[in-house]
Give the backbone structure.
Amino acid sequence: MKKFDKLTAVAAPLPLINVDTDMIIPARFLKTIKRTGLGQSLFHTLRFDENGSEREDFVLNKSAYKDAKILITGANFGCGSSREHAPWALDDFGIRCVIAPDFADIFFNNSFKNGILLIKLPQKEVDDLMEVAERGANSTMTIDLETQEIISSDGKSIKFELDPFKKHCLLNGLDDIGLTMEKEKKIGTFEENQKVTQPWL
Amino acid sequence: MATTLYDKIWDAHLVDQREDGTCLLYIDRHLVHEVTSPQAFEGLRNSSRKVRRPDLTLAVADHNVPTTDRSKGIDDEESRIQIEALDKNCLDFGIELYGMNDIRQGICHVIGPEQGFTLPGTTMVCGDSHTATHGAFGCLAFGIGTSEVEHVLATQTMIQTKAKNMRVTVNGSLPTGVTAKDMILRIIGEIGTAGGTGSVIEFSGEAVSELTIEGRMTMCNMTIEGGARAGLVAPDQKTFDYLMGRPKSPKGASWETAIDYWKSLKSDDGAKFEIEIALDAEDIAPQVTWGTSPEDVLPITGRVPSPNNESDTNKKAKMQRSLDYMGLEPGMLLEDIKIDKMFIGSCTNSRIEDLRLAAKVANGQKVADHVDALVVPGSGLVKEQAEKEGLDEIFVSAGFDWREPGCSMCLAMNADKLQPGERSASTSNRNFEGRQGPGGRTHLVSPAMAAAAAIKGHLVDVRSFNID
């Protein structure tokens, strides 16, 4: 997994609530057996019109935000399906961090497994950052995972909370299958016990 | 200490707990389908890892399969490649697979219970958010992403932190013409699509006990639409009766021991729930969604709401966006909304009871001239049963299209979809923008309401059909 420690990049404002996984990547783009190349389908309906041309008014199509790596958005981002194609598409497009009041649970987990940092902040702080992000290419922010703070272009610092295990894995780019495999003995013991207590399984 | 059903199943599957609260949970059952698994198997191959317990894993192709005659294979190349990849992966890793032409093939959340693969007190995962369905059996079931699918394949465990306990109690009995689908839509309208975030919801109360197992599946299926990690109903005699004799259910002496254990699976009196919601079943009318989120739901007797009555600016903007997308004007009667297509199917509503109910409404009627109506059974076995009962004939003579099993127009990955601007009455679970095809407009309803809408050509209160 990709490491995440410090990121300085343009933040794009997407002031919508309940952005669902079908909006992030519609189901017709899930017919792939690869993880890569999904960035071109990211926010497909919002980004492109019926003829496949870019919609000028969509934030990521504006020149100031073409290189955005941070997204500031509304509550319940990533609701809906469990498709990991959603974080794959974000990552492939170049988005490494999303800031919102809250996220849907499955999307939250999926993003961290792909080295994408999701930051939950109170609505007021998200509103403030949204305002900063609306300044276009001047909306550069720095996310420091080690110190758990966001430093916006006006020098203001905002602290954020994060589960220590997720932070540890992200900072070190750890593959958690490898970590779990170290517990193989415990898993084996569990299976032996279960064979006795619930033999029908 | 008094514990909840969720606490009990969680505790019984705890393999390890770190100091920071991160837990390793054992997974008893894993359902695999073609869309979210290829990258997981690729990951296993790249790291030379095996599937730890192929015997606890069951695979089926459902999302992509055509619902028309498939004896000659699949035309769509990408879909075909994905399905062939599943075939190969199951063969290479020794996993049981119900192939496209197996009578047991169907939507993963229909076939799990049908085969007795889903059992009370177990933990289950699948790379699909509607895995919550299996909670109807008192099975703790999570939808997961592909990285977690790979993790479970390799280790038979998943890393999780414990969720909050939430309980939704529905008191009293559902009125005539009102179903489990209406009940869960009403609940989502009440709590919102993020109302269950970070929680596992236990459904209880008289109205839930009175539901059939299939009704409970419909209810738990849409728990994810309320944002919760899983939904649960405590197992009871109905659960045991449903499971008895299924191919993968315990047999003989094991069955008796299992039942003894399953009977202990309920929340203790006085168990603590962080969030409690209560509703009266008598107040629930047939529901229909008007917007682009399952929480945008009202009784069929209502009118399209106005953004002017919404004070929260974010919600107001979302509401306006939904109305523009749906092509609806505030104040219009929901019953005046004309439809172009109707879809009965999906892991929410494609089981035999759903088809029986829809057939009761369709019996002796005709689908409106301007409506295309699609009935897609949840599995080959559901289809076979329906045909044995003559339901297919009722549908076909009323002008409904009778199809092969699969996910179909719920998410429009195969050829079944809405064209831009087209409007459906659908028994599926999501009315997101573009969910049933780019530009398509979805109204979520129960199977009875869907059949009624197909016949009248517009959304309509099924209670006017006078079926019992």
